[in-house]
Design a protein that fits this description.
Blueprint: H1 30-51
């Protein structure tokens, strides 16, 4: 280990030139400003159209509302007939097996 009270040994003078070529950062708020500005323009256009009565629909003069809806009642078609089933063969009732013979 070296003595901390002694000056370090002489080193040759070396000059390092380091150039970092980073592109300049554009502001991150530029696209946000463009978006907000576009929204403001859209809101102004909508307000002008609504408040200048260009987009309004004129109300009719009278309030006579008579609607005649006389439609025939729809009828459902007949359901298809079920086919005739074949005759089932006769079935014998189940029987019990014979009892086993007693063990003697």
């Amino acid at each position: 280990m070296t003595d901390p009270n002694l000056p370090p040994p002489e080193r040759p003078e070396v000059v390092h030139h380091t150039t970092i070529n980073n592109p300049p950062r554009s502001g991150g708020a530029s696209w946000l400003g463009l978006l907000v500005g576009g929204l403001v323009v859209v809101v102004i256009i909508i307000a002008v159209v609504v408040f200048s009565n260009r987009g309004a629909i004129e109300a009719p003069d009278g309030t006579d509302i008579s609607v005649d809806i006389d439609l025939p009642r729809p009828e459902m078609p007949d359901a298809p007939r079920m086919p005739d089933l074949p005759d089932a063969p006769p079935v014998n009732p189940p029987t019990l097996p014979p009892e086993p013979a007693p063990v003697t």
